[in-house]
Specification:
heterodimer, A: 432 residues, alpha/beta, Rossmann fold, Ubiquitin-like (UB roll), de novo design (two linked rop proteins), 3 domains, five-stranded mixed β-sheet, four-stranded parallel β-sheet, 9 strands, 43% helix, B: 970 residues, Dimethylsulfoxide Reductase, domain 2, 4 domains, Nuop51_4Fe4S-bd_sf (chain A), translocase (chain A), 4Fe-4S (chain A), 4 iron, 4 sulfur cluster binding (chain A)
Chain lengths: 432, 970
């Protein structure tokens, strides 16, 4: 099997490719092809054929998301209104750092991608909503944007076509909730970063009330390659039904934590033991979160699981961002879940009751359990809270995301919780 | 025959909205029962409209849904087997045909209980000391969900509270984060100094820093907040539980809008005013003047004794007649009042005869009010809900936010209609509050503020540049010409030829807006008595298309009633002044003659053989009177007030009269055998008087039909849980008195009576709102046909409408109105009065809280006009008056006042025609300025002391309640 790495092959973290060098390695070819030779609907059709799915965590087919942007008739007054593309680069999911690699290592690829996506949806303004702490990425992106303007890839009449695109870099003031696309839009508008009620979806009423597409960095970065090399090539990259490659990551006590662009659909075992080098000496794998902090735990029983959207779902978790967080047998799962829940409680926007008060309630309960002051009733109460904060009952997906590691920890590490309660202390104490 | 004789209409269709959209009803199955719900409405509103109990917090009928609290969760089943379903938020889900819903379904019910449990993790257990307790929506909803056992073991988060001014108290620890306060204050009422701050379970609702809330509607936070975060501060200072309040339906006496209020009383003092829902007028909100402006009825200045005649301690009518007989004069002249009830004015007119009835208004005022009346009689005066539905509003020379604030709030809502239209195009229902705001952004319906000074509606206006009053008048006339001419734009050009091209552009903008608008409304008012402008609007109305509506706003609660009693014989103040009164008794009823200078008042007192003042509070005229008769304030009286639209609305006493106080009409009746024709003798009951006035006094609406049927089945003024009835006077007497009898109104001074819910379908206003399980005023939805709609037992409306032929008497007097604009030129500046909601009538000065919030004495001028004042170097100036007195005002240059106009604010403007009296403005020495500032701070100190004294006095009188308050006949 060939191991092509289209997303990352031009990455240079020390000094990313400048415009001329990037063009030399084939950069911006896709822009010329798209804006000069293809119609927007042709671009959309290619992307649809490629089977590209969102890499931000939800795995929603990208072309389908785009297709919800209303197509107004020319006589409709809304025909001439703005549409927007937003790149969600607010990478704040604990255990996830893949976008940073792309942003710092090959910023031109993102700009190229955003021109394609904007062209496909008919947007003339695009925004990169960047995590506030990504200072280096901000500098490199701005340099790249300036170069793109200077070389006629941004601004009016891109590559002598009649297509126009302005691209703005916006650095976040720093809240996890800004990764939620409607909260991101509110933040970009200068409002409180509270998620919006859906429907209406941003594709219909997004930034400033106009049709808006929000795509993740990694999702977008696939577009130039799909345009250049076609949907069949893209589909063939993967090991399973999910097309393309995926930047998988591993953190926790593995030998070599890191990021790898691999064919979509490799197994957990391959990722953890081949690429991440297995567990550190003396440690065993107890469990792992397959795709960031807001996915359910899986265990050593799932090592042969294929890391694809459907496969991980069927196993009771989510592929999420593909950034695995490993839990070893010397670290306390209760402590880990508490740590995660503190994060979610801290990052709740405070809008809806289950999230605002429920996450804090979980933290209070877990803190007592971890400190050895928990009771059996606390476990019932945690189960109840998991149900209380589940999908459909909250305003957005933050609280359900917080529930996922908690509910699965209660399932897989039930004994650990019981031991905390029975022994009135954390049984892992001293093992750190 | 007065050609202005009103035709009286009691039909509700007169008031029914043309915009009332008929929605399709679809069948939805709720807990297995089929019900008909309006398609597309949100499920919560639809379900509440069907009188189901479904708890909620963040949703509000006027503000729509946002889905924050998650309290209204229900189950939506996939099919009729009701086996499988998912939890949905009722407030965020539109009604769809054939839905199967479970309100009682266990998972949803448990979730609702858990939402309360989650809110309670941080809610203090301070209900016993919380002002909201007993009328708390959170308490009600908690009980409704069945939550009773606390499982959360952690500590509660605490906040630091803010000082938000003298009206609203802040206790953030009680907050359940429903976001209603922010949504009302910022989104609905346009306040700028309040917001949600912070995140997670530390969201804080308040100002950036401590300080007086700037909005004129801040008091609504008290009702909007579902728990005790925002409470009524003056009420808290002299507090009683809702269940211990005796309440009566009333009408706000703050302006001519006629907002419906409910007044609460305990131990003889009035404790609070809250909004009383009326779908066509105030809806769910009143302004702070309405909520807090009643306090003068408890004030130090109340007149509670007869003075000028000797009487035995207990008031006896025949002794009074004998004592008064000594003061009989050849003729009796009566001065009516725009703030007195229609009964009192009509009784006075009957007492003195039409030739001797004086309106108490200047000719200018009369003519201005005649213009308002003309539109009222043509039925062209828009209701508040009409205004809210307008798509183009033009406000002419009136700062609505400071004069008729509730109208300003409606204007603000109207500017959102373009947003609702756009949302509808996008398939977003109008109740999806956040989504509508997102979709529409800054899109607003047209609002043109043609004004000389910026106002608090500027932020939603398409145009608000200050201009001279003459320019406003010219534009009004141009609009009038446009309305009369089929080729408006060409005409506009000729009409404004030679004038500024800017105003021409503005005119064509306005004209285009009006042409495109479906329901334009043009609003003006009487705050500057700008007669030419009002007449221009009146003329405009005569040839404006039928879909145009107007709101010409008088200045006082019953001004329209008073005008309807005026005929060709009615004396203006000018005519009264010219009259030989040397052998006349003059009865001034509820009128301190603020339109007159103190010289003119003195002159009246000297000329009149006897000056009788009937009023509830001391004022400059009562000080000069030979005889003062204590009147009841509106809180102790029954009567009718006619609002700007011509709606005759009844108000009811919240507590019995304490003799010798009588309602003004009663005094008229008591005086009739001495001063009058004797026609009122024996009409001791209001119902008798009303019958008589209906038959004999033109301009008195037929109120009998409205009340007669209810007198047999009285409603209770006191809730079922009213406590201490037998104990409250036990320190004075152990004998339990018989309840006071109120034979005149459909309400009883007791807990007895069917409590407004007699099942006979009686159309009675509710004295207070309560329903089983709903102790807060959100219980109102149980009494509406649908939430936010008409009341299910709405009181019959009496409306004065009629023909609009100009009367002969009017044509004569209008030419004799000396000036058509109440303003004065000083230093080349047009001097006008600065309106302020808390300082624009004679009673505002009697309310400590308002005195604290009123602006300091000041003169506002355009920055470019500062050069007229000693090269712009002065901070204060001295205003000198005709009577050689003077006062110092702060000179405040602002950018947003028309050049050449100056706005004067001084408390004396509320008791005298200050602008007419100004002769010059001079410089003032530094020493005088510091003395002035010293005086201001002393005044503030005195206000605070007076506030405390007043409170101490009220607390004292709680211990010594006049027996008449609780018992009959002692």
């Amino acid at each position: 099997m060939t191991t092509e790495t289209p997303l990352t092959k031009h990455i240079n973290l020390a000094q990313p490719l400048a415009m001329a060098d990037y063009v030399d390695v084939g950069g911006y070819q896709s822009v010329k092809k798209a804006v000069l030779q293809m119609s927007a609907s042709e671009v959309m059709a290619v992307v649809k054929d490629s089977g590209l799915k969102g890499r931000g965590g939800a795995g929603f087919p990208t072309a389908m998301k785009w297709s919800f942007v209303p197509d107004f008739e020319p006589q409709d007054p809304r025909y001439s209104e703005d549409k927007y593309l937003i790149c969600n680069a607010d990478e704040m999911e604990p255990g996830t750092f893949k976008d940073r690699w792309l942003l710092e290592g090959v910023p031109h690829q993102l700009i190229e991608s955003m021109i394609i996506a904007s062209y496909a949806i008919g947007a003339n303004k695009a925004f990169i909503f960047l995590r506030g702490e990504y200072h280096l990425a901000a500098r490199r992106l701005q340099t790249a944007i300036d170069e793109a303007y200077a070389h006629g890839y941004l601004g009016s009449n891109i590559q002598q076509s009649d297509y126009q695109l302005d691209l703005y870099l916006h650095t976040s003031a720093g809240r996890y909730i800004c990764g939620e696309e409607t909260a991101l839009i509110n933040a970009l508008e200068g409002q409180r970063a509270n998620p919006r009620a859906k429907p209406p979806f941003p594709q219909v009423s997004g930034l400033f009330g106009k049709p808006t597409i929000v795509n993740n960095v990694e999702t977008l970065s696939n577009l130039p390659h799909i345009i250049n090399q076609g949907p069949s090539w893209f589909k063939a990259l993967s090991n399973n039904q999910d097309a393309g490659t995926k930047i998988y990551g591993a953190s926790g006590r593995v030998q070599r934590p890191g990021l790898w662009e691999l064919p979509m659909g490799i197994t957990v075992r391959e990722l953890l033991f081949k690429h991440a080098g297995g567990m550190q000496p003396g440690l065993n794998l107890k469990g792992f979160l397959p795709g960031g902090a807001s996915t359910d735990f899986l265990t050593a029983d799932h090592l042969d699981l294929v890391m694809g959207y459907d496969e991980v779902s069927q196993a009771g978790s989510r592929l999420g961002t593909g950034g695995i967080i490993v839990l070893d047998d010397h670290n306390c799962p209760v402590g880990m879940v508490l740590n995660l829940l503190k994060f979610f409680a801290q990052e709740s926007c405070g809008f809806c009751t289950p999230c605002r008060d429920g996450t804090a309630w979980v933290v209070e309960t877990l803190t007592r359990i971890e400190q050895g002051q928990g009771t059996k009733q606390d476990l019932d109460s945690l189960h109840k809270l998991c149900d209380f904060m589940w999908l459909g009952k909250t305003h957005c997906a933050l609280a359900p995301g917080a529930v996922e590691p908690l509910q699965s920890a209660l399932k897989y590490f039930h004994d650990d919780f019981e031991q905390h309660i029975d022994k009135h202390c954390c049984p892992y104490h001293g093992h750190h | 025959m007065d050609k202005f004789q009103p035709n009286q209409s009691t039909t509700q269709s007169e008031i029914a909205k043309p915009m009332e959209v008929k929605t399709d009803l679809v069948t939805v199955h709720v807990d297995g029962k089929a019900v008909q719900l309006p398609k597309g409405e949100n499920l919560l509103a639809a379900i509440l409209s069907k009188k189901y109990n479904l708890p909620y917090f963040c949703w509000h009928p006027s503000m729509g849904s946002i889905g924050a609290c998650r309290q209204c969760a229900i189950t939506q089943f996939t099919d009729e087997t009701q086996q499988k379903g998912r939890t949905i938020m009722a407030c965020m889900t539109p009604v769809v045909d054939g839905m199967f819903l479970g309100l009682e379904h266990a998972p949803a019910a448990e979730f609702r209980e858990q939402v309360i449990a989650a809110m309670m993790t941080n809610h203090p257990h301070d209900c016993p000391v919380c002002g909201e307790g007993g009328a708390c929506h959170l308490q009600d909803m908690t009980v409704m969900t069945g939550h009773s056992h606390r499982q959360y073991q952690g500590l509660k988060r605490t906040f630091t509270n803010q000082y938000l001014g003298p009206l609203v108290n802040h206790e953030m620890n009680r907050c359940i984060t429903c976001y209603r306060c922010e949504r009302f204050y910022k989104d609905y009422a346009g306040g700028k100094d309040f917001s949600a701050c912070g995140s997670k379970n530390q969201v804080y609702f308040g100002r950036q820093q401590d300080g007086v809330l700037e909005s004129e509607f801040a008091g609504n936070l008290v009702e909007v907040c579902p728990t005790g975060v925002f409470t009524d501060k003056p009420f808290a200072a002299h507090y009683t539980r809702k269940w211990d309040l005796q309440s009566a339906p009333s009408i706000c006496h703050g302006c001519a809008v006629g907002c419906n209020i409910s007044v609460g009383e305990r131990y003889g003092s009035v404790r609070r005013v809250i909004n009383r829902y009326h779908n066509d007028i105030n809806g769910y909100f009143i302004c702070d003047k309405g909520r807090f402006g009643f306090a003068y009825v408890n004030g130090d200045d109340r007149i509670n004794k007869i003075s000028g005649i000797e009487l035995a301690t207990a008031f006896k009518p025949h002794e009074f007649s004998i004592a008064m007989a000594r003061h009989n004069a050849k003729t009796t002249v009566g001065i009516g009042s725009a703030r007195a009830s229609q009964e009192s004015n009509a009784a006075l007119k009957q007492l003195v005869g039409r030739e001797n009835f004086c309106s108490g208004l200047t000719e200018l005022q009369q003519e201005c009010l005649r213009s308002c009346q003309a539109l009222m009689l043509q039925n062209r005066q828009a209701s508040i809900s009409d205004i809210e539905q307008s798509d183009c509003i033009i406000v002419l020379d009136e700062d609505l936010t400071q004069t008729s604030a509730r109208i300003a709030l409606a204007v603000r809502q109207a500017t959102r209609n373009a947003a609702f239209d756009k949302a509808e195009q996008m398939g977003i229902p109008r109740w999806q509050d956040d989504a509508v705001r997102t979709a529409a952004q800054d899109l607003r319906s047209d609002l043109y503020l043609l004004q000389s000074k910026s106002c608090k509606l500027d932020d939603v206006a398409a145009f608000c540049e200050p201009m001279l009053p003459e320019q406003i008048l010219e534009l009004a006339r141009d609009i009038s010409d446009f309305a009369n001419n089929p080729h408006p734009l060409g005409l506009a050009q000729t009409r404004t030829e030679g004038s500024h091209s800017e105003s021409q552009t503005l005119l064509s903008r306005i004209v285009q807006s009006l042409q495109h608008a479906k329901r334009p409304v043009i609003i003006a008012g009487c705050s500057h008595w700008h007669l030419a402008l009002l007449q221009a609007v009146e003329k405009l109305a005569t040839h404006a298309p039928k879909n145009w509506q107007f709101a010409l706003l008088p200045d006082a609660v019953n001004a329209m009633g008073l005008v309807s009693l005026m005929d060709e014989h009615t004396l203006s103040l000018e005519q009264l002044q010219a009259k030989d009164l040397s052998s006349s008794a003059v009865i001034a009823m509820e009128n301190s003659l603020p339109a007159w200078s103190s010289e003119q008042r003195k002159q009246l007192a000297e000329q009149a053989e006897t000056l009788v003042v009937i009023d509830h509070s001391r004022h400059q005229l009562s000080e000069l009177a030979d005889i003062v008769l204590p009147a009841t304030a509106f809180t102790e009286s029954d009567g009718v007030a006619v609002n700007y639209q011509g709606l005759a609305q009844p108000f009811f006493a919240v507590k019995p009269q304490v003799k010798p106080m009588h309602s003004s009409w009663q005094w008229c009746q008591l005086l009739d055998d001495v001063f009058g024709q004797g026609t009122l003798i024996g009409l001791q009951k209001l119902s008798q008087l009303r019958s008589y006035l209906t038959d004999n006094v033109t301009g008195y609406p037929d109120m009998n039909a409205m009340f007669a049927q209810h007198l047999l089945f009285k409603s209770a003024r006191q809730p079922m849980r009213y406590s201490g009835r037998t104990a409250m006077i036990a320190n004075q007497t152990v004998h339990e008195p018989k309840n006071p009898v109120d034979s005149d109104s459909p309400y009883s001074f007791s807990m007895e009576g069917p409590g407004n819910d007699d099942g006979y379908g009686h159309a009675l206003p509710r004295s207070f709102s309560w329903a089983p399980g709903w102790n807060s005023n959100q219980s109102i939805s149980k009494y509406q046909v649908k939430v936010g709609g008409v009341m299910s037992n709405r009181a019959d409306m009496i409306r004065l409408v009629g023909q609009s032929e100009p009367s002969a008497s009017r044509a004569q007097t209008s030419s004799s109105a000396k000036r058509n604009h109440r303003s004065q030129r000083i230093l080349g500046l047009q001097l006008r009065q600065l309106e302020h909601l808390f300082a624009n009538d004679e009673f505002a000065g009697k309310i400590a809280e308002f005195n604290l919030m009123a602006p300091p004495p000041c003169l506002l001028i355009n920055t470019d006009d500062t050069g007229k004042f000693n090269q712009g170097t002065v901070s204060h100036v001295r205003v000198e008056l005709t009577d050689n007195s003077s006062f110092i005002v702060q000179l405040i240059p602002c950018a947003d006042i028309a050049k050449g106009v100056a706005y004067l604010h001084h408390p004396r403007a509320n008791t005298s025609p200050l602008l007419d009296l100004v002769v010059s403005i001079s410089t003032v020495s530094d020493a005088d300025i510091s003395a002035h500032q010293q005086q201001l701070s002393e005044n503030l100190e005195q206000i605070l002391q007076q506030k405390n004294r007043n409170l101490a006095r009220l607390q004292q009188t709680d211990q010594r309640i006049p027996i008449q308050i609780v018992g009959e006949g002692s």
